[in-house]
Structure formats: structure tokens, C-alpha cells
Amino acid sequence: MTSKRRFMQLDVFSRQPMQGNPLAVVIDTEGLDDATMRAFARWTNLSETAFLLPPTTPDADYRVRIFTPAQELPFAGHPSVGSAYAAIEAGLVAGVKTTLIQECAAGLLPVRVEHAGAERVIHVQAPRPSLQSVSTEIGSAIAMAIGAELSDAQVRLADAGPLWWLCDLREAACVRALKPDMHAIAQLTERHGAMGISVFGREASGPARMAVRAFCPGDGIPEDPVTGSANAAIMAFLAERGDTSYGFDYLASQGREVSRDGYVRVRRNAADGNITIGGQCVLLIEGELRL
């Protein structure tokens, strides 16, 4: 039997419509089985679709399940930011609350809300990324796939919910000039079970200190517009090597190369090492879904 469910589509990590990263959110998910969620995520053909559910613990304000067109993720950044925004807009949580708890497959994640209405900014604490070095063989394959020279010190594998290979290209100009081999990246990520490759470098001017790009063609998204989990992992990479040149609170620019200019606020608590990713959202579509 077809049911009517509330539905929203947002742009996340932007205050301008049709910028940032689009997110589909199904508000009333009770009764949908896993196969239907996966099928709907494939149908939207967005990098992620979020499904909101009642929490399973009184400690959480809401629960979210996150699907790409190919798989379910334990955590992803822009769906977490967008889900908190949608939960507030839909009245699932009180709009006056400034601290929330999101339940997802990665656990219970603190959410902080700043400002209200169109100026609302959502900050989500990311799961603590774990990092490991990569072999010279894999590092060489990554370098060939993205078309850049890399030393071992410039590459890490990060488990940030999804697995990302991180590449420090040092300068934003190098990041923005890349013309990666998507077929080679897809083969590499599928072979090793990674989500994709994220590259970053320092901006010389403008509001953002860092330029970021993320390539995940094996998951059906050649270049992700704005990637919260990768940005959190990059901050962990900087912390691992003691690099404070970007500071503990910076703005990262991502998506310009795919005409989705987005900005992520990345913060690391110097005392406990916790990393948050944050940004604004724009509600573009609000209506009724029939599934």
C-alpha cells in the first residue's frame, strides 16, 4: 500500500540555493524496508539520501540512516548536517534547542545549533577518524589516478565512517587543476573497499583557507560536491602530523569545480581532539512523497 510521507530536499554547506551539496530527506520513514530505502536512494541519484526515524534511545533526539546510490553509510557529513536541519524544520525537535544528539550507525553524535531561520548553522561532531599509512604501491597508484606527484608523507588512508584516501597537494592551485582518471579511481577504490580519494591544498586568498575535492566514481558520484566526512578526516590528518598552520578553526572550500560552490566550517578541540564539521542549509523542496 502506498503511504504519504513528508519529504525535503536541501542544499547543504551553502546559504545560496543550487550551491553546496544536495540532500534528499525522507521525514516519516517508519514502515519503509531496507530495499525500498536503497531503491529510493538510487532513484534520487544524489550522493546521499537521509531517512529520519524515531530514536532507539532516550538520549537521542532523532535517528538517521544514510544511503548513497550504492550502499548504506555509518556516517556522512552533509547528510548529518542536513538531517539536523530537516529535523528542526519538520518539528521533530524543538527549534529553540541549541544542542541535539543524532543517532546513526556510527553512534550518538553531538550536534550544536547556532542562530535560527535562514542564518541557522549546524555543527556535527564527527566520529573520531583513524589514520594509517599506505604502501608505496598504493600511493603510486593513487598518484597515477589523480595525475599528481605524491610522497608517502602526503597520503593517508582515513576511516571516517567511509574510508577515504587523503592527499595533501599543498597548494589549492594544484587541487583545482586536477583532471583525474575516474576509471582508474573507481577500480582502485572498488579493489580496496574505499569510498574515494580526497585532495586538499592551501588557498592563497579568499574566505577559505583550504581547497578540497573528493572523487568517488565507484559509488556512482564522480566528484562529490561537498564532503563532510573527508573534511573531518583531513583535520585529523593535520593533527596527526602536528600541522597547526591552518589553525583549529578554518573554512574549507569545495565544489567549485562542479559548479556547487560550498563551504565547510571545520573545528578541532585542542583539549580532547574532537572534530566538528558545520555549515548552513537551504531548503529548496518541501512536499509529499508517495511510497
Residue share in β-strands? 35-45%
Beginning-to-end CA distance, first to last residue: 8 Å
The coarse overall form would be: globular
Structural class: alpha+beta
> How many whole angstroms does the radius of gyration measure?
18 Å
Instruction: State the share of residues found in helices, binned by percent.
Output: 10-25%
Query: What composes the largest sheet?
Result: 8 strands, mixed, barrel
Low-confidence stretches: none
Tally of strands: 17
How are the strands ordered across the major sheet?
1-2-3-4-6-7-8-17
Average pLDDT works out at: 96
Q: Compute the number of helices.
A: 6
Order of helices and strands: EEHEEEHEEEEHEEHHEEEHEEE
Describe this structure in words.
By secondary structure, this protein is an alpha+beta fold. The chain is built from six helices and 17 strands. Strands 1-2-3-4-6-7-8-17 form an eight-stranded mixed barrel. Helix 3 packs antiparallel against helix 5. The longest helix is centred in the N-terminal third of the chain and has 13 residues. It is globular. The model has no long low-confidence stretch (mean pLDDT 96).
